[in-house]
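Form P-L/3: holo structure prediction, ligand 3-methyl-2-oxobutanoic acid.
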Amino acid sequence: MSKLGKGMPQAITVPGLRERKALGQRAVMLTAYDYPSAHIAEDAGADILLVGDSLGMVIQGRPDTLAVSLDQMVYHCAMVSRAARRSLVVADMPFMTYHTGWRDAVRNCGRCVQEGGVQGVKIEGGAKRADLIKAIVDSEIPVMGHIGLTPQSLHKLGGFKVQGRTADAAEQLLRDAAAVEAAGAFCMVLECIPSEVAREITARSGILTIGIGAGPHCDGQVLVFHDVLGLCDGPLPRFVRTYGEFGKQMREALTRFSEDVLAGRFPSEEEAFHLSPELAKRFGAKDDDAGSATH
Ligand code: KIV
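OUTPUT (holo model):
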């Protein structure tokens, strides 16, 4: 049954996304981590809401994604799924939830579907994850691949660095992309790789490529919600385009609230509850006060 009622926009599905590749259509993905961010991102046109393990950084304030747990991912997925009416919701499987064997992986992905309400999962890694991706897809759970800079490989890679810059590394990325597709993934993220390599992968691939720091030739693009909106302090990677300064606006609004409280300007009489005029008098109100009293 469709997620949507009559007259509502058509829900994005995995087969629908596969069709887009054939039709040469683009796709928009945004991360979302909770009910309000999912609503806003969906209303803004996101086809896919990725409950990214970037939540470890932008929600939990950690330096990387490695400490995010499966329980936390399920919790965030459930909030995002409750908001989504049109967008496809994908769980970003956290570090160590799919590294210890396919049975663990299938069970953990299944929790994101059953408890988190998602329609797909994202798995980091290329050719070496092909068998695993196939096992998850064979369990009826759609998989989004993710190659290039895979943030869960942070320590192995020695930092958040652009991947695929040598001929060998670029060739390996082409093999990774082909393996992920052959394993049954319905689309794949290309993160922080040279534009030329992303263009070649996109041209060869029969599934949508969704780029982040991978140049303009991908079939779609993804950015982190907080980065797009300017909600985080500190320097951002060069591939991020920020479309607002909402962190600044929030700080200004909250500062005005603090100033009003300290100056006695908040709340006003209109923002308070009152007794009836008769009762108000018994509690010490003067005649002047009682006139303005309403419930
Ligand atoms: O965790 C995340 O937000 C991601 C995307 C940026 C692709 O993996």
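COMMENT: Confidence is low (pLDDT under 50) at residues 290-294.
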